[in-house]
């Protein structure tokens, strides 16, 4: 079988077959393009454009734009997931989200005020989360439970690959913003075409019957009533909040907090640091996912990696130097890569109902997008009121440590 054949949902243990490997390759490309947009635009192009528009208020503006746009991400991801569950299809949502994002990115590249940039980024966050909701649901749809750790690890390589590609494209096009935005739009649209063309989509089941909106809302949030899913949600939310409180301001951290070598600009510094972080992330993603499958243990990997992510936040505080940032980037990449790979596998094992996988993964994705609503506002307030980025690192570290503790109450997964 090849990736062009339909892969039906499966629940029992099964060896990894060529069809699964082909599907995972397509998912790797699809997720990498998505993360290239999030990292390249969110961490490089958007801050660069905002700084050019209003350098005196760049921290506050980036906080407002990031926070409001994350509201759109939080809302659209689970809604799109529930709708794709109801229709029983993924591909139309993948294609629609990708091409709408292309239009939104083209719009941002053509505007010159903070307000219009913010509106454009809200549109991109909304449409990219339609795309993300459908892509995310494919693993629990089609990969056997016994292979989730390996699958999550392989798909998890999208973060180091996509992040590196995104930052490199962003740093190379930072002085040509319109071109940069268009490149990212074409990248995600091309990945969507590749996945939907090579992986045929048919309904997994009959479309769900219409139900009253009140019942839809109750069903939508019902996953959080399940003990283990709730704690997985909390752990993911705390970890993501700690990570993005710092990551969203990395360009400004390099500009205002770190003593860079003479002649090294912040955007160029990010182009060096990101591959360091992403290589470490790739190694820990693969090793963590494979070992968690081999040992049939998830919690210890998730908790230890979250704790490490919290502890390494102290490195730029102790040593606000270029060397310190390199060490921080490597260790943070190791921690975050292992966490995301194994935590994704853990989450697929605590989903309440397989037939509502996209809806419930959409609810979980609130733990990804929701903290990003809070993170820009909190980070901006910390930097402006507490006098710099040192308190920001300390708060981010504390949140990641709390995320490690939140994993411990999960009972149904070892």
From TrEMBL:
Q: Which SUPFAM superfamilies match?
A: MFS general substrate transporter (SSF103473)
Which keywords label this protein? Membrane, Transmembrane, Transmembrane helix
**Could you confirm whether the keyword Transmembrane helix appears in this record?**
yes
Protein topology in the membrane: Multi-pass membrane protein
| UniProt keyword annotation of Transmembrane helix present | yes
Source species, domain of life = Bacteria
Domain Major facilitator superfamily (MFS) profile residues, every copy: 24-414
User: Which InterPro entries does the protein's record reference?
Assistant: MFS, MFS_dom, MFS_trans_sf
Parts of the chain that traverse the membrane: 23-47, 59-80, 92-112, 151-169, 181-199, 233-254, 266-288, 300-319, 325-351, 363-383, 389-410
Name its cellular compartments.
Cell membrane
Q: Which protein, by its recorded name, is this?
A: MFS transporter
Organism, by scientific name, is Streptomyces fildesensis
Lineage, top ranks: Bacteria, Bacillati, Actinomycetota, Actinomycetes, Kitasatosporales
């Amino acid at each position: 079988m090849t990736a062009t054949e339909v892969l039906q949902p499966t629940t029992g243990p099964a060896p990894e077959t060529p069809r699964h490997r082909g599907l995972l390759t397509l998912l790797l490309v699809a997720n990498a393009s998505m993360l290239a947009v999030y990292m390249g635009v969110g961490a490089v192009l958007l801050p660069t454009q905002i700084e050019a528009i209003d350098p005196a208020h760049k921290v506050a503006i980036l906080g407002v734009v990031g926070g409001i746009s994350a509201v759109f991400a939080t809302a659209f991801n689970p809604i799109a997931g529930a709708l794709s569950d109801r229709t029983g299809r993924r591909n139309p949502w993948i294609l629609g989200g990708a091409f709408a994002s292309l239009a939104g990115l083209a719009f941002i590249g053509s505007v010159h005020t903070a307000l219009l940039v913010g509106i454009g980024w809200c549109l991109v966050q909304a449409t990219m989360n339609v795309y993300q909701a459908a892509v995310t649901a494919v693993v629990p749809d089609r990969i056997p439970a016994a292979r989730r750790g390996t699958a999550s690890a392989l798909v998890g390589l999208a973060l180091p690959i996509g992040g590196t590609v995104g930052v490199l494209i962003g740093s190379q096009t930072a002085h040509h913003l319109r071109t940069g935005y268009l490149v990212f739009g074409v990248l995600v649209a091309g990945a969507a075409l590749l996945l939907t063309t090579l992986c045929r989509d048919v309904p997994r089941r009959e479309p769900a019957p219409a139900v009253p909106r009140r019942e839809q809302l109750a069903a939508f949030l019902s996953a959080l009533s399940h003990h283990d899913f709730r704690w997985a949600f909390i752990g993911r939310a705390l970890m993501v909040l700690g990570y993005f409180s710092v990551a969203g301001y990395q360009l400004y951290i390099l500009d205002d907090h770190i003593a860079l070598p003479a002649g090294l600009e912040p955007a160029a510094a990010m182009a060096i640091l990101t591959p360091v972080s992403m290589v470490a992330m790739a190694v820990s993603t693969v090793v963590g996912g494979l070992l968690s499958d081999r040992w049939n243990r998830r919690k210890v990997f998730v908790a230890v990696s979250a704790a490490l992510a919290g502890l390494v936040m102290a490195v730029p505080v102790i040593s606000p130097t270029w060397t310190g940032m390199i060490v921080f980037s490597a260790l943070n990449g190791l921690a975050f890569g292992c966490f995301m790979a194994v935590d994704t596998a853990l989450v697929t094992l605590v989903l309440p109902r397989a037939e509502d996988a996209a809806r419930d993964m959409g609810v979980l994705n609130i733990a990804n997008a929701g903290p990003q609503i809070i993170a820009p506002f909190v980070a901006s307030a910390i930097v402006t009121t507490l006098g710099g980025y040192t308190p920001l690192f300390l708060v981010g570290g504390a949140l990641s440590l709390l995320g490690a503790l939140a994993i411990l109450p999960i009972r149904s997964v070892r």
